[in-house]
Amino acid sequence: MLDGLRLVLVHTRFPENIGSAARACLNMGCRDLVLVAPERLDLERALPLATVHAKDILTSARVVGDLPEALADCAAAYGTTARLGGWRQAVSTPRTLAAQLAPRLESGERLALVFGPEDQGLTNEETMILDGLCSIPTAVEGTSLNLAQAVMVLLYECFEARRRASQPASPAHPRHGLDHQEREALAAALREALLAIGYLKEQNTDYWLLPVRRTLSRLDPTRAEFNMLMGVCRQILWLAGKTGKAIRDTRETL
Asked: Which domain holds residue 218?
């Protein structure tokens, strides 16, 4: 049911949570599990929580060195957070996010849900390369969820949204959107261009770039639009360089 959805666990500390997450994957039909530099990968401790039914998901999980590698072939990736404010703006609920992902999964895109380590969650630097964030509402008495519980909540909402999205009889057609590497290349080009014209601040640039990144994620540009925007960035840099040269030449003649 959740073909095309990847579950990414970053620096997970406890093997038991990896096993429980694998079982949640089985329950909700998500078979693509990627582990980013887990602190402990002890299958003997993880397998009892996965149970024999999810053993193949656990043992076939791909282990990679960093988050960009885990997301390289994904069209978009969304992280989870319990902390709000600052870098963590425009945070969705699981149901809202799932409703956004369902039609994209239906059309054949590869998307990722990203969970950080149990004690600290995702870093600001890790959230910066994601396309959006999601937070699970809880009672004020207990705002911290077990990692595997959080995984199940998100996967369940995606399962339900995907099931509803699959009801129309008309066949879905694959989109030709951007993958994660292209999105990062576009964000880097925009960063350089906006710095060149003074739109972005020199201090804490990545923080001020976040609204631009979130806007790109909502717009979900096609590859043709990507080429157009990259061309705009190149033209901005050319014009900024030409203007800067003219100013320097003027100063030298004074």
From this structure: 180-253
